[in-house]
UniProtKB/TrEMBL annotation:
<keyword id="KW-1003">Cell membrane</keyword>
<protein>
    <recommendedName>
        <fullName>Olfactory receptor</fullName>
    </recommendedName>
</protein>
<feature type="transmembrane region" description="Helical">
    <location>
        <begin position="141"/>
        <end position="161"/>
    </location>
</feature>
<dbReference type="InterPro" id="IPR000276">
    <property type="entry name" value="GPCR_Rhodpsn"/>
</dbReference>
<dbReference type="GO" id="GO:0007186">
    <property type="term" value="P:G protein-coupled receptor signaling pathway"/>
</dbReference>
<keyword id="KW-0472">Membrane</keyword>
<feature type="transmembrane region" description="Helical">
    <location>
        <begin position="28"/>
        <end position="49"/>
    </location>
</feature>
<dbReference type="GO" id="GO:0004984">
    <property type="term" value="F:olfactory receptor activity"/>
</dbReference>
<keyword id="KW-1133">Transmembrane helix</keyword>
<comment type="function">
    <text>Odorant receptor.</text>
</comment>
<keyword id="KW-0716">Sensory transduction</keyword>
<feature type="domain" description="G-protein coupled receptors family 1 profile">
    <location>
        <begin position="41"/>
        <end position="290"/>
    </location>
</feature>
<feature type="transmembrane region" description="Helical">
    <location>
        <begin position="272"/>
        <end position="292"/>
    </location>
</feature>
<feature type="transmembrane region" description="Helical">
    <location>
        <begin position="194"/>
        <end position="216"/>
    </location>
</feature>
<dbReference type="InterPro" id="IPR017452">
    <property type="entry name" value="GPCR_Rhodpsn_7TM"/>
</dbReference>
<keyword id="KW-0552">Olfaction</keyword>
<dbReference type="GO" id="GO:0004930">
    <property type="term" value="F:G protein-coupled receptor activity"/>
</dbReference>
Length: 323
């Protein structure tokens, strides 16, 4: 679909990473594999934290909702890009673009909110262990998760409503694999993007507040851990907190770089790779990062796999009457 045709249509053309059809197919397959891996990892986390009675603490409750957000976030951008790449169109309708903005902004803010709550949970568990059950009671955890999802919906609504007021001028070509707000702002007519900028500034302030809360929590955590006399105790705490700290740092740093740096008229390969770092990699790697050094999660996964093998063995025996 040519740029000239795009100017007469209500939708947009997602250019992505290459105009070469063979490369587009290769990229679509790589994205598809990444999506399947990320979806499988997050689905396993959701399953075991729901079914395993030993993984019902607040930490795993928040981890389950983080995996739900990650799975949803991956489903917002990748399937659309894979479908349009394989169809050789790159076309996305105006309605689909607005829906992508709503859900992507909602899930991104929900992830930041969940990471903030998780850091507070670790702070209470390590620094205020005697008050943990009172502060992180099931009712309060439910309210915290509800507040995260509600604030995510409000964030998505604000970004979508402000984007709907934009009039787009010229060729409606987006140099990205999804409807990214900074790229859309380049297509707006003069003075039409003021509402989006206001929302962006407000959300940036709120994100900074979350970052300060996370920094305070980990400052207190590390101060407490370093005073522990037991090396084994320090190692256990670090193995629990460091994966979470890595996820938070990676998500915030890449997202901040992408949204704070000026958008160029001709994005480079590094600009496009940066977008992958904050949209695709965090939700894909989160399940593996959190389970890598978590013995309880690894044992729960083994138990789940063994139970599936056991069910299969029982089924085979019942069919062939061989047991």
């Amino acid at each position: 679909m040519t740029a000239r045709n795009m100017t007469t249509m209500s939708g947009f053309l997602l250019v992505g990473f290459s105009d070469n059809h063979e490369l587009q197919i290769l990229q679509a397959l790589l994205f598809l594999v990444t999506y399947l891996l990320g979806s499988a990892g997050n689905f396993i986390i959701i399953t075991i934290t729901t079914l395993d009675p030993q993984l019902q603490s607040p930490m795993y409750y928040f981890l389950k909702h983080l995996s739900i957000l990650d799975l949803s976030s991956l489903s917002v951008t990748i399937p659309q890009y894979v479908d349009s790449s394989l169809a050789r169109s790159g076309y996305i309708s105006y309605a689909q673009c607005m829906l992508q903005i709503f859900f992507f902004a909602s899930f991104a803010w929900g992830e930041l909110g969940t990471l903030t709550v998780m850091s507070y949970d670790r702070y209470v568990a390590i620094c205020l262990p005697l008050h943990y059950e009172v502060i992180m009671s099931p009712r309060k955890c439910t309210w915290a998760v509800a507040a995260v999802w509600l604030s995510g919906g409000i964030s998505g609504t604000l970004f979508t409503a402000s984007t709907l007021s934009i009039r787009f001028c010229g060729d409606k070509i987006i140099h990205q694999f999804f409807c990214d707000i900074p790229q859309l702002l380049k297509l707006s007519c003069s003075n039409d993007d003021f509402g989006v900028l206001e929302v962006s500034i407000f959300m940036a302030v709120m994100a900074f507040a979350c970052f300060m809360g996370i920094a305070f929590s980990y400052g207190q955590i590390f101060s407490t851990v370093l005073r522990m006399p037991s090396a084994e105790g320090r190692s256990k705490v670090f193995s629990t907190c460091l994966p979470h700290l890595f996820v938070v740092s990676f998500f915030l740093s890449t997202g901040s770089c992408a949204y704070l740096k000026p958008t160029s008229d001709s994005p480079t390969a590094s600009d496009l790779m940066l977008s992958i770092f904050y949209t695709v990699l965090p939700p894909t790697l989160n399940p593996f990062i959190y389970s890598l050094r978590n013995k309880s999660l690894k044992e729960a996964v083994k138990k789940l796999l063994l139970s599936e093998e056991l069910v299969g063995k029982i089924y085979v025996c019942s069919v062939f009457s061989a047991c």
